[in-house]
Here is the input.
Amino acid sequence: MLPPELDKETFLILARQAGFDPADPHLDDLFPDVQLMLARMDMLFDSPTDGLEPGYRSPGTKA
Amino acid sequence: MADVSLTAMTVAELAERIKARDVSPVDVAEAFIERTAVTEPKLNAWITQLPDQARAAAKRAEADIAAGNYKGPLHGIPVGLKDLFWTKGVRTTSGSAITKDFVPSEDATVVTKLQEAGAYVFGKTNMVEYAYGGSEHNEIFGAPKNPWGLEHVTGGSSSGSGAAVAAGQVPIALGSDTAGSVRAPAALCGLTGHKPTYGLISRTGVSPLSWSMDHVGPLAHTAEDVAIAMNAMVGYDSKDPGSANHAPENYVAALRSDLSGLRIGVLQDDFIWDVTVPEVKAAFDDAVAQISALGAATESVSIGNLERLAAAQSTITTAEANTYHHEMIQRAPELYHPVVRRRIEAGFFMPAAAYVQAQRVRALFEERYASLFETFDLLIAPTTPSPAPEADGQSIRLPNGEMPSRETVRITRIFNPNGLPAISMPTGFSDQGLPMAAQLVGKRFSDGLVIGAAHTYQQATDWHKHRPSL
Here is the structure.
């Protein structure tokens, strides 16, 4: 499972690690997009995928 | 003075006249060049127009045909290319300021195949920046306008291809579809647009958005024209790692005259209907009734948990797009459209486990779709939840509120992660005179059945025959 929420402080730490300047005002615009992306991911981890391997069969292998 | 009535014709109609030598490819080229000159100032459908190249290609086609070397129904037919298809010696911008001067040294495989069939490149159509969105056009190129309502969006990301075909600037164009970027502009511009089975058409020389979900497909007036184009474009390509080594099919021969014996599942998921406006639903219900009258057995069915599939599609796109743009977006982030920039940058914050889990959800729906296609030959759903939203609007008005305008691809994106063939076909017009559409979806490699069923529907309806007045 992923953390349920990403607070701004943690986001700025991650942003610095990703190469952003934490003082860049652009990060204020980016933060909601990242929160939205993480919220979508929660839904993925709630899916019943036990026993399933990741991936998509190569299209050429099965018609 | 060119005969601009030619510009209202389908590829099949033009081909019949060219083959019979009632009209020459040069006449055809001049008609579309003149139509484009008149309408383009209103539409902004093109990034690069190539009238001189088109005239030269048309003259070669004319000479070939006069010499008895008729190649088939695409011979002498102009084709528009979304500006992410590589064209040798012609700039290929992907709708971005960053790659605005990129000139490929070779053609995309699919472009070569179209040219081998006798078609020629008419120009490069406008598009959403790097195909990542529904209306996010880089300001250096601006947004195309919908020929059915100039204040409305065309849908994207193959926006210029939709506008150009709808306006009669070109009879057919190519797009790419990662979440609905062929089907949504086809739907909102009153066209027929097909997303083929993943891997059926080569992506070599097509700038990527999301490698594992990018599909190349045509936008045209009719399913018959889609079939004609598919016959030329489909084929294994060893240079494309996703290419399907699948036996070729004659899609024109697969066109049907009735739907007898087909079982069609009518999707009922709340994910679809909670956001679909009443006008689209009414047109959809009429289309389903027509399909039943044509002999198909229709039955309500739900896929279930589509929010999860949509989330998987979005997660995979974010991760793969971030990987592709990794270096460019760090070098020149300010050159991206701000919304596209943020979508790509969000990928820097995605845990690896999320991408893997999205692939497991993809596998989950692989099983669900396999189960559905044991019962049904085809599924049907609306293509977009509403007619084309207003261009300056950030949301679509619904009976119970609003949703972001990017949700025009909400119902199309659920068929991308599993590579299913899906065709969008016009089903009517709104009170405002804007097109509405439904999509037919089949199991992988059932493209002939999907296109053939749409063709049957179009033999009994005339929505695809309407043309906008410009």
Notes: Chain B touches chain A through 48 residues (CB under 8 Å). Residues 57 and 218 of chain B are 21 Å apart (CA to CA). Chain B has one domain: 4-309+349-465.
